[in-house]
Amino acid sequence: MESIALAVNETQRVAQHKKALVAACVGNFIEYYDFVIYGYFASVIARLFFPADNEAASLLLTFAVFAISYASRPLGGLIFGHLGDRYGRKTPLAVAVMLIACSTTVIGLLPTYSAIGIASPIILTAARLVQGISVGGEYGGATSFIAEYAPPGRRGFYTGWQTFTIGLALLVGGAVASIITGALSAEDLRAWGWRLPFFAGLPLGFVGLYLRLKLEETPHFSSVQQTAEIERTPLVTGLRREWKAILIGMGLIAAPSACIYIYYIYSPTYLSVVLGFKLADAQRANLYSLIFYCALLPVFAHLSDVVGRRPLMLVSSLAIMLVTYPAFHLLDPHDFGKTVAALCLMSLAFAPHSATALCAMAEIMPTRLRYTGLSVSLNIPVTLLGGTAPFIATYLVSRTGDLYSPAWFVIGAGLCTLVAAYAYKETLHSGLR
């Protein structure tokens, strides 16, 4: 009878792990799908909300709003991180997913500049700021939630699914953008077609809210609650006692910040506006590279549970530095196949680190400070490098005349990550703190 009871308990425990993983990943997908579709339709939004005689100026203003939304991500991380480390992971994550759903719906319904004038870009900016607060609270919270539910020996694989859902959100957003762009005329796309992906925000948000409210608190945080080890000021304590871990975490996320936003979010605009691809072809090429990238992530996440986190991060960050510039030279509007191969080559260099970094960061943070520590480590580099990446890339091309200059931005971020990966001490066998 005792063996049967143990088997039942083990089955329930595994089911709870899977349920937690699905809820965290579904919510994570919703957050990032809502957040990134703005980038896919940046060239359309530029003409509708920021009219200017110079097309480059309109696009710069559009990406400036893209960057401004990232300024609110650290604020969201601090607010939600404090709540998550004081009161638990569950409720802040539920609130985050509804915030972004509502703000995304506002963007989809927003009248253009020609209809309501200056109020239009102001409301657009406000909605993007709310999205930034939401995603800032989501990032560290979802990582904490998944890592604290993951079974020993499979933490790399479990947390790798969070990265997978970010890639999947990019993929689905890209697929939706490609279908809409290919199916509609340019006039219909500008008139109403670009709004369609934004309308999915609210129903998806309710799905994420339902799944997250059904979850129990993580066992690691519950243990901290039971032993009265809750931190009253997690940010102050984290900065004072865990500053080394936070700095290493910031370095580890530098390359992902640049790569995700240059390789996958900015690339459709780069290929179409800078290199002269048809927008539909640019989005399709990006879509193929995202499929390849997503397929690689579970493989490398599993491998990190075998060989460790550090080797994959070192090799990947070095590969990013060596591959990016030559791959940019292969992007050719007259050779679609070579362009897809170049984008996939960059994905292959990036995927090992992308699949591994979140787990490594979660393992170097203590449970009582993990939500806040991860939020700081994740959101500051993403704000400084990811949020500004499309703007900086557009500026570099416009200012220097070098079509391949965005590659140097990625290489610089890769160097920061290489240094951090070298400083990181392997945590494969040490478990969560």
UniProtKB/TrEMBL annotation:
Coiled coil: none annotated. It is found in: Cell membrane. The keyword RNA-binding does not apply. GO terms for cellular component: plasma membrane. Residues 20-431 form the Major facilitator superfamily (MFS) profile domain. Its main location: membrane. PROSITE patterns: MFS (PS50850), SUGAR_TRANSPORT_2 (PS00217). Pfam families: MFS_1. Keywords: Cell membrane, Membrane, Symport, Transmembrane, Transmembrane helix, Transport. The chain crosses the membrane at residues 57-81, 93-113, 164-186, 192-211, 245-266, 286-304, 311-328, 340-364, 376-397, 403-424. It is a multi-pass membrane protein. GO terms for molecular function: symporter activity. InterPro entries: H+-coupled_symporters (IPR051084), MFS (IPR011701), MFS_dom (IPR020846), MFS_trans_sf (IPR036259), Sugar_transporter_CS (IPR005829). Belongs to the major facilitator superfamily. Metabolite:H+ Symporter (MHS) family (TC 2.A.1.6) family. This is Major facilitator superfamily (MFS) metabolite/H+ symporter. It comes from Paraburkholderia xenovorans (strain LB400).
